[in-house]
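The protein record minuted underneath.
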Amino acid sequence: MMFKLFGKTGLRVSELCLGTMTFGTEWNTGADYETSKKIFEAYAHLGGNFIDTANRYTEGTSEKWVGEFIASDRDYFVVATKYTLYDNRSNPNANGNHRKNMIRSVEGSLRRLQTDFIDILWVHMWDFTTSPEEVMRGLDDLVRQGKVLYVGISDTPAWIVAQCNTLAELRGWTAFAGLQIEYSLIQRSAERDLLPMAKHFGMTVTPWSPLGAGMLTGKYNKGIPTNQPARLTEKSPKYNSRNQAIAQVVCQVANAIGATPAQVALAWLRQQGDNIIPILGARNLEQIRDCLACLQVQIPAEHLATLDQASKIELGFPHDFLQLPTVKDVMFADTKDKIVFRK
């Protein structure tokens, strides 16, 4: 396992992140204690140090087990958890981005993780009720107190993230160093604004659902399996003809280069930019071993082009409009070919 710097910071995180939403059986989709421990150990055995959890995951069990698993070597591991989502349905202030829930949630996470500090705290998603000033000042206070070392943001529009980071830079507060988003061969809409924004601010990107809820493993190519647990149903938004067609191409590329479909999907993500660190989720040891083997996969250029063609999206306005030859002509006139553009 190699290591990358987290955003503009000097923090070293492994090139694959272990997602632990599957640690716990409370949601009837996860792994029991012993299996979760084996998944963790398989990841750590390769040198992985980047662990992702959240206050909501499996009603707090994920954080509790992660705390136990890292206890013997706490300083080696970079533990990222999240706040925003509820952990008490009847309390109006036990959810949201505001300072009261931020502090309350962090204190709960510290207890469950059995640690004095959180390496990375993510804003789990934007609630559209709390101002950027309150969020960024609250997070900066936690950093200054030493309870949180770095901050990131997840599932939030690009314009809000840009506003928050610009505000933090202006005020001298801690800025977001990471962005967590859904991104995969079947969900590429982040390429419109979120990924360019992250590149501008030097943010690390940690994609969740890199296998498209299992679609990209090929297990749904012939329909919903009846002889094994399935995350998707025929009514699931991701279960459609477009995504099945993309999954077929992933399988074809996998056969051509001697890899599994999951490894191809993860390798494609890794080859989209040095700042991208996929989050691996697994319910058993076989799945995590399969995913970790993506480190040995490099997709040749011709197969990358095939995958891109099968999954490409329209960027839409104003992106497509600004690339029209007539528009470029009125912007640059006869000087277009004399300008060295930034990459």
